[in-house]
Amino acid sequence: TSGVFRGGPADTDLYRTLTTGLDGTPMPAYGGSLTEEERWALVDYIRFLSSRSFLTWFLWDPPE
């Protein structure tokens, strides 16, 4: 992956992509199967997964 969101970088772009899908790709539309609240929660989750906070958490090696 390139680290770039194809539908645009803003939260509203991610929301729109989740709602309508992304033409020319296998990305389906979730507007009919997820509520507005669920789609915004998914935007937050995607942002968390792409953040340094997640990488720090994921790569953290707890002391023994």
Short structural summary:
The chain is mostly helical and about 60 residues long.
How do the strands and helices of this protein lay out in sequence?
Blueprint: H1 11-20, H2 36-49, H3 52-59
Helix pairs in contact: 1-2
The value of Rg in angstroms is: 14 Å
**Topology order in helix (H) and strand (E) letters:** HHH
Q: How many structural units, i.e. domains? A: 1
Structural class, by secondary structure, is mainly alpha
Q: Low-confidence segments, ≥5 residues, pLDDT <50?
A: none
- The CA-CA distance between the termini, in Å, is 34 Å
β-strand amount: under 5%
Shape call: elongated
Overall description:
The chain is an all-alpha fold and 64 residues long. It has one domain (11-59). It contains three helices and no strands. The chain has helices spanning 11-20, 36-49, 52-59. The longest helix has 14 residues, at 36-49. It starts with 10 loop residues before the first helix and ends in a 5-residue tail after the last helix. The mean pLDDT is 84.
What would the keywords be for this entry?
64 residues; mainly alpha
